[in-house]
Amino acid sequence: MSGKAQFHELVTTVAWFAPPRIGHTQYRGVRLKLLTPEELGSLGVTSSKEQPDINQAHRGTVIHRRWTGEKAAAVADGDNLELFVQREADQIGETISYAVVTTLSMPGVNEVYVQVRAKLAIKPKVPVPA
Q1: Handedness of CA 78, 4, 109, 106 (dihedral sign)
Q2: What is the three-class DSSP state of 46?
Q3: Looking at the predicted structure, is the pLDDT value of residue 106 above 90?
Q4: To 10 degrees, the CA torsion angle through 85, 89, 94, 96?
Q5: Which of 7, 21, 34, 47 is the one with CA 20 to 30 A from 90?
Q6: How far is the C-alpha of 21 from the C-alpha of 93, rounded, in Å?
Q7: How far is it, in rounded angstroms, from Cα 87 to Cα 84?
Q8: For the chain, percent helix, then strand, then coil, each to nearest 5?
Q9: What pLDDT was estimated at residue 1?
C-alpha cells in the first residue's frame, strides 16, 4: 500500500448502548466521540465529503466516519494508527460497552489483511462442547 498513488480509504464505526436518562431532555445517558486520528496525513487521506458533518455524526449512538484519498501513502512496516474514543462528561457514572470496527482498504491490495492478522494474532474463541 505504501507509495501507491491510487484510491484508498479508512472507515471506522463505533456503536454503543446508552443508558436512558428518564425525564431529561438529553435522554441518552452516555455520549461518545470518535476523535480524528492525527496520523491521517501519513496515510494520504482526508475526511470524505459524502458523509454527515462531524457534529451530526456524534449525536446518536452509532458513529461512522470515512476518510479517503488518492495520494501515495507513507506507511512503513511497524507503523500504527491510534484511534481514540472519548466519553463526554455525564452523570451516569456506570461502565458501558461499545464496539469499534475499522477497515483499511485499497482496491487490488489484499496483503494488508494478512499482515494485520499476523501482527494482531487474534485467535477466535471456540466454544468447548460440554
Answers
A1: positive
A2: strand
A3: no
A4: -20
A5: 47
A6: 12
A7: 10
A8: 15, 30, 55
A9: 64
How large is the average pLDDT for residues 46-63? 81
Determine the Cα angle at 13 with ends 60 and 26, to 5°: 15
> At residue 69, what is the residue type?
G
Are the beta carbons of 116 and 80 closer than 8 angstroms? no
- Summarised one tens digit per residue, pLDDT across range 67-80 is 988 887 777 777 77
Looking at residue 89, the DSSP 8-state letter turns out to be: P
Which pTM was predicted?
0.74
Answer for the pair 73, 43: CB distance below 8 angstroms, yes or no: yes
3-state secondary structure of 73: strand
- In single-letter form, the type of residue at position 85 comes to V
Cell of 102: 475499522
Per-position DSSP letters for 96-113, written without gaps between them? --EEEEEEEE-TT--HHH
What pLDDT digit, counting tens, does each position of 26-39 carry?
Answer: 777 788 899 888 88
